[in-house]
Design a protein that fits this description.
With 161 residues, the protein is mainly α. It has one domain (7-132). Helices cover 94% and strands 0% of the residues. It has helices at 5-22, 25-139, 142-160. The longest helix is centred in the middle third of the chain and has 115 residues, at 25-139. The protein is rod-shaped and about 200 Å long. It starts with a helix and ends with a helix. Belongs to the ATPase B chain family. This is ATP synthase subunit b.
Length: 161
């Protein structure tokens, strides 16, 4: 019997397969693959858990952001209301101030008018008295002067008593 290369290749293959079976390589490969599959499964479970946590955190932060935006909008609205109230109050106070100043100015004008009228009357009375003195002095003689003087003294006496 002549052994050619094919025979030796077949014998080598059979010996290799026997050695692989004797060393339990398929079981080791199966366990290794199972272990790797378990590791991958646990990593996928961990990734899923982390994804759920991240989604929960995202939802919580979005809720907090929305609340913060609402708070900011409320603060802005309150500031606008307060500014409007302050503006209205300032406008009212300004109008009251202007009204008081106008009333005070009008009162001062009336007082000045009264003072001017009084001054004009006093000046007119003084001028009339001076003119009357000149007229009386020019037209009156000594007897008329004495009679007027006596009459004025009598009037003063009656008023004092």
């Amino acid at each position: 019997m002549a052994f050619d290369a094919t025979f030796y290749a077949l014998v080598g293959l059979i010996l290799f397969l026997a050695l692989v079976a004797y060393l339990k390589v398929p079981g080791m490969m199966g366990r290794s693959l199972d272990k790797r599959a378990d590791n991958i499964r646990s990593e996928l479970d961990e990734a899923k858990r982390l994804r759920e946590e991240a989604q929960a955190l995202l939802a919580e932060y979005q809720k907090k952001r929305k609340e913060a935006e609402e708070d900011a909008a409320n603060i802005v609205a309150a500031a606008e209301r307060e500014a409007a109230a302050l503006t209205a109050e300032a406008k009212q106070k300004t109008e009251e101030f202007v009204a008081r100043r106008n009333a005070l100015s009008e009162q001062k004008i009336k007082q000045a008018e009264a003072d001017a009228i009084g001054s004009v009357r006093a000046a007119a009375v003084d001028l009339a008295v001076a003119a009357a003195e000149k007229v009386i002095a020019a037209k009156a003689d000594a007897a008329t002067r004495n009679a007027l003087f006596s009459d004025a003294v009598a009037q003063v006496k009656t008023r004092l008593n």
